[in-house]
Amino acid sequence: MNCVNKLATLQPMRRATGILIGILLGALASGLGVGYFFYKANTDRAALSEKLTETARNAQQAREQNQHVIEEANKKLLAANVEVAKAQNAIKSLEEERSLLTEAVPISSPSRKTSSWSTVVTIPFRLSFKIPSGNTVLTNDDQALIVTSQNQMDGSDARWLSLTQYNPALEQELLASLTTSTAVSYLVDGRLLTGYTGTMLSQKETILLLRIYRNGHVSNLLWAKNTDSKNNVLLDIISTMQFAD
Prior knowledge:
alpha+beta
């Protein structure tokens, strides 16, 4: 009888144990499934984050490359515009020079009296001309060529000819020193020379102020004062000019 009672008691316990084990196994399986899900989610999230980072980096590089291409294109466009402007200015200058040439007075070949004069050559300015005897070259470099008179006895400035690179400010200063002025234009050795002739205050000497053109541009500025009290030798000096190009 006792054995029967014990068996009857054990059967419910076995069923409860089976149910409990089933629950535990189910919980374990569920826990393992949830853990794998979280692991997979974290792995996918890390991969997605890395992919987003790489995409952002590639996008930044693409933007930088595009910006560089745009900047280079702008530089080339600016350079092209500068060259076009230079070409337009050159054409305009040549047209102006051609117009002035039609009004220029041709200077004939040097007169016989210049045959005994001394020849002055300036390599930086690529031209030569003759000066009367009794004069000497004071300066001859890439800044200026200056001629002085050896016969100046009154203590005044012996400089009477100056040839420099063209300087608009200097031109205006020299022009302002003239009390009278007349526009002149000459054609010498195929080169255009334009400017003014006039006199200075309290002086009787004739002054010549000329621009010298080269290929449509003003290259040099010539200032000269006539030192011959009997004759105006300035045009004789101009007539001896020869240009290297």
